[in-house]
Every structure is written in structure tokens, then in C-alpha cells.
Amino acid sequence: MGGLELSEKGLSISTVERETGLLKDTLRVWEKRYGFPTPGRDENGERVYGRDQVDKLLLIKRLIDRGARPSKVVGLSMEELLERTGSRADEAANPPELTEALKLVKTHNVVGLRNRLDSSLLHQGLERFLQDTVAPLNLMVGEAWMRGEFEVFEEHLYTESVQALLRSTVASVSRPSGSPRVLLTTLPGEQHILGMLMAECMLWIHGAACIALGPQTPAGEIARAADAQRADVVGLSFSPAYPAHTAVDTLVALRAMLPPGIAMWAGGSNPALFRRRIDGVLPVRELAAIPDAVASWRANRSGT
Ligand code: B12
Questions:
Q1: Is 268 near ligand 1, meaning CB less than 6 Å away?
Q2: What pLDDT band is residue 171 in, cutting at 50, 70 and 90?
Q3: Mapping DSSP to helix (H, G, I), strand (E, B) and coil, where does residue 267 land?
Q4: For residue 303, what pLDDT is reported?
Q5: Is 232 a residue whose pLDDT tops 50?
Q6: Looking at domain 176-301, does it have CATH number 3.40.50.80?
Q7: Spatial distance between the Cα atoms of 5 and 12, rounded to a whole number of angstroms
Q8: pLDDT band at 88 (very low <50, low <70, confident <90, very high)
Q9: Domains 89-171 and 176-301 share a fold
Q10: Which top CATH class is 11-75?
């Protein structure tokens, strides 16, 4: 997924830290304590990791985020990790129309995929489509990529198809006069945009107005845009791939740049958003929490 810094020998420890969210120190300690990961060395004696090791580390991280102890999971095989993370079991439980959509991506049938998605949208309506089709499909595409079943370009085919459909739908429901006015973007380095786009759809459905800046806006620019656009809320999206410390540091810095009257919402499944409270920043774990966030903002604004 995305342009990784893959030299012929493998990935540097910094890249692995960024991709997995596991600190360099943790990677070194595990190597010594549990005999995994097992990096090679480059010509300068620096550690280099293979893609297969990074895939395993992502699964280990996921189990640890759910409360597992490193001593119980770091030594497991890929098979065992897939079982424990539920990737295998989930696959069998997927609704057939989602499995079919995934097959259409795999066979590069973009027209078929668009038709499949259009039809689900018409049947389900936008809100259910986001929650019951797009959200689980994102997970399935991510899992398939982790099992090595999807190429980068296939993921791009998927993202582009969903993105095109959501954008055209948003264009038909936008009401510029809604409130709150939410400025939406991601921070530099965050290429995942579906979360932001899904949040935008959900906000429109619930009567808010969105100003979409697209992805990767530097904090200073976000503050200037919020002022120029008279935004009530700055909404940012963080995928689990985004480095935890950068997310927290930048949220704190941006909070200090924005006037107190502008709220900040940080959405997405990045665990850093939920580990510890960040003053003046509302974490939004899932789409279903958006209506409450909007209602609380309105209640505060009207002083009730
Ligand atoms: C498509 C995709 C890509 C595409 C993105 C294309 C694009 N233009 O968006 C590409 C190919 C570029 C890509 C790249 C990478 N990806 Co990727 N990607 C995905 C995938 C399949 C879906 C992406 C997505 O947008 N998800 C994020 C959103 C939709 O979900 P969410 O965070 O749970 O957010 C929900 C709510 O919280 C809410 N929400 C989100 N934002 C906001 C904001 C506000 C304001 C509000 C109110 C609510 C809200 O809405 C969402 C609805 O469900 C996911 C799989 C997955 N499980 O998500 C992997 C995934 C996120 N990627 C992953 C990885 C590792 C990467 C790469 C590091 C891979 C690499 N080796 O290069 C790069 C990183 C690129 C970068 N620097 O950002 C991992 C992250 C794992 C981890 N723990 O670190 C995942 C989880 C896949 C996996 N299972 O391993 N990826």
C-alpha cells in the first residue's frame, strides 16, 4: 500500500516504526527477548526488515492494542496470528455481496465494482451504505492486503471507485448553510482519505456543512483556512498507519494555534487518539459517533 522505502535488502527500522506504530526500542527489545523480529543488516550494519516480518508485526500490534501481552504473541506463527486476530474467521462470516465486491477488485473489474457499489448505495441509503458496506469493505481490503492477496494498484482501484462514488453523492446532498461548519483534512504524511470522505458524507447527512481541504495540510495552513472559512470545527482523520507521537504532538500544536471557539475533532482508528485525553480535542472512534458529536456541539452553542 503506498510508496514504501523498500531497498533491495528490506525496510529500515524507522520505516518499520512508522508503518507499525511499534517504537524502535520495542523492536530491539523483542529481538533480544523473544527472537523476533529477525532483521538482516545493510552495508552500514543497520537493521533491515523483510516485508513478511512487517506484516507479522502489524498483526502482533493489533493483538497488543486489544490487550494481549507481548510475551504471549510475539513468538506466534503467521497462521496463529491470523487466527487470533480473527482475519480467517471474519472472512467466512462476510456477507456474500461484500465478498463479491472484493472479487471484482481482484479481477480488476472496475465497471462491475462501480455497479455493485451503486446498487448497494441505492438499496441501503447513504448512512447504511457507509456503515454496512464501505466500512467493512475497507477492513476486508486491508486484511486481504496483509495476507498478500492484493497488489498496491488493486487497492488504488478500490479506493478510487469508492472515492468517486462518495464524491458524486456528496455533491448532490451538500447544503452550504448547515451547522456546524466543519473543515476536514488530514495532516502531512496521512495518505488515507476514505475516513475523511466517509466522515464528510455522515456530517452532511446530519445537517452539518463541510469544507473539504483534501488530504495532507500542514498545521499552520489548517489554522489559516479555519479562520478564512469561519469554521466551527476542525476535523482531522488518522488511520492506524499514522505515527502516534506525530499525531498527538501535531494535535496539541494545532489546538494552541486555533482560537478556543473552534472545536477540534480527531477521527479514525488510530489508537493514539484514544489512549490518553488531549485537551480540547474530541476523539471520534467511528462514524456512528458523528451524530452525537454534532448534537453536543449544537447544544453547547445554544447554551443548553
Ligand atoms: C485504501 C488503503 C490504503 C491506500 C489509501 C488510498 C487513499 N487515497 O486513501 C494506500 C494504498 C495509499 C495505503 C497506503 C498505506 N497503508 Co493503507 N489501507 C487502506 C485501507 C484498505 C482502507 C483505508 C482507509 O482509509 N481506512 C481508514 C478509515 C476508512 O477507517 P477508520 O480509520 O477506521 O475511520 C473510521 C472512523 O473512525 C471515521 N473517521 C475517520 N476519519 C474521521 C475524521 C473525522 C473528523 C470523523 C468525525 C470521523 C472519522 O470514519 C471511518 C469509518 O469507518 C486500510 C484498511 C483499514 N482497515 O482501514 C489500510 C491500512 C489503514 N493501511 C495500512 C498500512 C500499513 C499502509 C501503509 C503504511 C502501507 C505501506 N507499506 O506503504 C501505507 C501508508 C501510507 C501513508 N503514508 O499514509 C494498515 C495500517 C495498519 C497499522 N496498524 O499501521 C491498514 C489498517 C491495512 C492493514 N490491515 O494492515 N493504504
A1: yes
A2: confident
A3: strand
A4: 62
A5: yes
A6: no
A7: 8
A8: low
A9: no
A10: mainly alpha
